[in-house]
Specification:
By secondary structure, the protein is mainly alpha-helical. It is built from 21 helices and six strands. The chain has a four-stranded antiparallel β-sheet with strand order 1-2-3-4, with no helix packed on it.
């Protein structure tokens, strides 16, 4: 336990009494017990981690016993969760803020100039909805320019997917991930200034924010490769990745409220400052590997390193040509692109639809837009649980269980997206249909978006980077197309066409994935001498199948 006790001019730390430069073993005083606060224990670890200078000015070194009830990998989990949350807050905050940034003309009732909604203004409260809709913005940007700003992040984001993995191996995930977030926070703080200076200045601020954030997933996966024990890997990564959904919900919900109360610039000031605070905590608490962590317990370090394995097998060349020739790789690439088209359409353009067609004011717009990422999070977590149950009970094998969720994650979103256009000005039904469309789209994550590690365990990170490059393309293509289709044409018909395009892409991606998806290791992914190599990755999904096979064999014998 963390142990610090004052005794006059001396201190008792982890059972060691420091007085006059001498260290005397004492019984441990467990100050950092289960009743101690996390903050207290963390501060004690930071202050008394490796050495202590006593009152006589003598530097005394001792072997620390850290807070055993708070394993270092759980601290990393919390910091990654908060990091992903902040990353997506910085990414998504402009989606709602831009509605208030752009000046609107006086309402003429037809909705085609973007000044008022087709369905009329609406507010849940007593405040008129058009209070924040008319003549509040600073910039005379049309819908095409709005789409360009919303897409700028993703123009930069695609460049660093594959290089991010290399940077993590060379410089360490702590620096790569942390510096990426630091630069993103600084650029977020500069966003109001950039917008007021020049349109293209703002475009490049968003572009470079996406460029530097492109490394976060490769760095995230690389660090967990050193930290996550195989039996905890799924759980730890699932927790940290849900930070993306939580961050999007917070960004959309709070951006509308902040804009309504104190103005759109504060959306960027507040979120940028929060990200800076996270960066400081990250640099203090996180380390690249258990071996480099100064406060990890010896038991935890040995557990992680022994479970992951210290034997390093001979590297094998990356089969780039085989990637290009593999049908299953192409199906994952196309599926990633098609599913993300719907996700990014909802993420970047839903607030615009809420304002110009359904007529919600800025505060309610942000809150209701946040329902979509919230349902994505709920459906993704639920879908992962469902597929585990299906496989553990041998209802379906791995391939068909993933096909089931893929079908639900590609076809149902298309159906609900079309229905949302047909319900017209029924606001409750439209919001519900859009949220269900986004939510069911989340089932594609446990459906096929995790198959990279199944078909090629040694190259799963590289494959994910490749498919994520193409999966990021809708982030800048969709807003550009939507901006062009709705420029001076904010009508239900225009948005119905947008929904038809999105639904068609959903269906096409679903058909391709169902036809060519595989979950077995591909021949080109094996080591050259597989028989002599000790496996360093254990796939938990194989365990139920093995148990089922053993049960079947015993039945035959009987």
């Amino acid at each position: 336990m963390c142990t610090v006790k004052e005794m006059g001019s001396d201190k008792l730390i982890n059972g060691h009494l420091f007085t006059g430069g001498q260290s005397v073993q004492y019984r441990s005083e467990h100050w950092c017990s289960s009743g101690s606060t996390l903050l207290t224990c963390t501060l004690l670890n930071l202050l008394y981690s490796q050495r202590y200078t006593n009152q006589a000015g003598v530097m005394v070194k001792f072997k620390k016993k850290p807070c055993e009830w708070l394993p270092a990998r759980y601290v990393l989990t919390a910091m990654f969760f908060l990091g992903m949350m902040n990353a997506y807050i910085l990414r998504s905050n402009i989606s709602v803020a831009i509605v208030a940034m752009i000046r609107t003309a006086e309402a003429d009732g037809n909705g085609t100039d973007g000044s008022t909604s087709i369905c009329g203004e609406f507010s849940f409260g007593s405040t008129p909805a058009n209070k924040t809709m008319q003549n509040q913005g600073e910039f005379d940007w049309d819908e095409t320019q709005k789409g360009r700003i919303l897409s700028a992040f993703f123009y930069g984001y695609v460049f660093m997917q594959v290089p991010g993995g290399y940077l993590e191996t060379k410089f360490g995930g702590k620096k790569v991930y942390g510096i990426s977030m630091l630069i993103g926070a600084i650029l977020t703080l500069l966003t109001p200034v950039a917008a007021r200076v020049d349109f293209w200045f703002l475009f490049f601020v968003r572009f470079f924010m996406g460029f530097f954030q492109g490394v976060i997933f490769p760095a995230h996966h690389g660090m967990w490769g050193k930290w996550a024990p195989p039996l905890e890997r799924s759980r730890l990564l699932s927790i940290t990745c849900t930070g993306t959904n939580v961050g999007t919900v917070i960004a959309l919900a709070l951006s509308g409220y902040i804009t309504d109360q104190i103005g759109w610039p504060w959306v960027f000031y507040i979120t940028g400052i929060v990200a800076l605070v996270w960066f400081v905590a990250w640099m203090l608490l996180v380390h690249d590997s258990p071996a480099e962590h100064p406060r990890i317990s010896e038991e935890e370090r040995e557990y992680i390193e022994s479970s992951i394995g210290t034997n390093v097998q001979e590297d094998i060349p990356v089969p780039w040509l085989e990637f290009a020739k593999s049908r299953v790789v192409w199906c994952l690439l196309i599926g990633h692109f098609c599913n993300n088209w719907g996700n990014y359409t909802m993420l970047t353009n839903l607030p615009n639809y809420m304002a110009t067609i359904l007529g919600f004011n800025i505060a309610e717009n942000g809150l209701l837009s946040a329902l979509s990422p919230l349902t994505i999070w709920v459906f993704t977590v639920t879908g992962g649980w469902i597929i585990d149950v299906i496989r553990s009970r041998d209802i379906l094998d791995t391939l068909n269980s993933r096909r089931l969720l893929t079908a639900m994650g590609q076809f149902l979103p298309a159906i609900f997206l079309i229905i949302s256009g047909f319900v017209g000005c029924d606001r409750a039904a439209a919001v519900a249909m859009l949220a269900l469309s986004a939510g069911f789209g989340g089932l594609s994550t446990p459906g096929f978006k995790i198959c990279h590690i199944e078909i090629a365990p040694r190259f799963g990170g590289i494959l994910f980077g490749i498919t994520n490059v193409f999966g990021s393309i809708p982030g800048f293509v969709a807003p550009e197309i939507i901006g062009a289709m709705t420029n001076n044409n904010q009508t239900r018909e225009a948005w119905m066409n947008i929904f038809w395009i999105g639904a068609s892409i959903y269906v096409f991606g679903g058909i391709v994935v169902l036809l060519f998806l595989r979950t077995d290791i591909q021949p080109w992914a094996h080591a050259p001498d597989k028989s002599s190599a000790d496996p360093d990755v254990i796939f938990l999904e194989d365990i139920p199948n093995t148990r089922s096979q053993r049960h079947s064999d015993e039945t035959k014998e009987n």
